[in-house]
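Worked problem 6 (solution included).
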Amino acid sequence: MARISWMDALKDKAKNLVSERVQESQHAQGKLTAQERIDLLLDKGSFTEIGAFATLQSHEYDLQKKKEERDGVITGFGRIDGRQVFVYSQDFTFMGASMGEMHTRKIAHVIELAMKTGSPVIGLLDSGGARIQEGIDGLDGGGEIFKKNTLASGMVPQISAVMGPCAGIAVYSPALTDFIIMTQATATMLITGPNVVKSVTGETISMRDLGGAEVHNRVSGVAHFLTVDDKHAVELIRNLISYLPLNNLEDPPIVSTNDPYNRLNSSLEEIVPDKSTVVYNVKAVLQEVLDRGSILEVHEHWAANVVVGFGRLNGHAIGFVANQPMVLAGSIDIDASDKIARFVNFCDAFNIPIINFVDVSGFLPGSNQEHGGIIRHGAKVLFAYSQATVPKISLVMRKAYGGAYIALVSKDMGFDKVVAWPFAEIAVMGAEGAVSIVNRKQLKDAEQGSRIKQKLIDEYTERFLNPYVAAAKNKVDIIIEPKETRKTLINLLEMLLPKRGDMDAKIPMKYKKHGSMPV
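Solution. The predicted structure is:
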C-alpha cells in the first residue's frame, strides 16, 4: 500500500507542476501544455503513458536538484479514430524541454515501439535543443533518435508538429520524418540562433525571419503545413492520418462518400481554356474531379508551380501531382522537382496510388536553374516515378512537352494508364518553337518567313500536337471529354488497385540493395 501511495504522490506532483506552469508560461505564450496537446490529438481516454517516472541521471551542474518525472517529455500510445498511434510531446516548461539522455532515450523508445507494432508515430515538438549540462550523453541519445527515424522511414508514417522552438539537434528529427507542421505564431526551427549567426557572419536577423513558420513553409520548403495554433495543428494531424495506412504493409483506409462516382465534370471546359497559353487555377480542376471536400494539399506555400497532396476518388485515398499554370506557367523548376520527388516517394512507400494532372511545357529554363542544378534536381523526379510501383495514372489536360512529358506521362517510365483530353498537345515542344528550329532555313528570309510561318505552325499542330497521334502509337490509352474525367479516373484506379510491385520487375533485383537517389 505504501508503494501505491508513493506512486500516486509522484503522479500528483507531476500534474500539479504542469498545472502551475500552464498559468505561468504555455498559455501566456498562446501554447497548450504537452498533456493538453496529447488529449486533443487522441481519442478521449485512449492514451497510455510510457516512461512517466523517468528522470535525468546526471549529477553535473547540480542537475539532481532540478530533476522531475518525465524529464520534459510525455511518451506513450493511444488511438486516432480507433487506430493505434504512438506519440511524444515535449514539455517546454521543464528546462525548455532540453534534450538530455533520458529525454532522448524515451523518444527513441517510442519510435522503436511504433516500428515493432506497425503504428504511426507523432512528435509534438517544443524544445530549446540539447541539454548542455549533460554533455555528450544527450547528443548520443539524439543520435539514437535519428537512427530510429531513418529505420522507421517508409515503414510507418512519421509526423512532426513544431509548436514552439525547435533548435540545434532538435531540428534534425522532424527533418527526417515524413511531414512537418508548424504553428504560425509560436514555432521556429533553427540550427543556430540569431546571436550565433551575427557572431559568425555579422548578419542581424530576428528569430522569426531566420527560422519562423512562414520562412520554412514559403522559402525553405522544410515545413509541409502552416497552421494557426496548436489546436489547428492537432486537427490537421488527425485529418492527415485519415489518408494514411498504419504502416507500409497495409492499404490506405477507404471512407464512405456521398459523391457519385459517375458525376459528370461539365464545368471543366469552362475552367480550362482551350488555348494552351491561357492560365487557369488547377486547384479548381482538382476540386471538381476529386470527392467533394477531400483535398488536403501538401507544401501549399512552397514551389507553387506544382500542386501536390492527398484526395479521394470514390472513397479511395490517392496522391495527386498537378501542374499549376498560374505560377511559372506550370513548368518544373528546382524546388518543384524536390517537391514532386519527395511526395511521390512517400506515396509509393505507403501504397497510395498517384494521379498526375498534367499541363506542362517543360523544365524551367535559365542560367539560375542550370547553375542551381536543375539537371540533378529534375533527375529526382525521374528516379521517384521510375521506382514507384503503386498504381500511376496520368491525365494530360492541355500540354505535355519534352522531358516533362517523359517525367509525368510516359508509359515507358512506368505509368500504368495515360488519359488525354481531345485538345491535349503531346510533343517534344510547342508548335511555334518547333517550327522555328525545324524550318529555320525556310524562315530565313524575313518576308517569306512571315507569310509561311503560320501555315507551318498549323501543319505541325495538326501533324504532331494532338492526342490521336500519341494514341495511334499506344502512348495514350484513352481520350475522353473533360466532363468524363472523374468517372474515367475512378474506373482506372479501381482496376489498378490490385496491382503489385513485381508487375514492373523486368530485371532481377535479387542482389540489389537499393538505388542511389540523386540529391
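Discussion: The mean pLDDT is 87.
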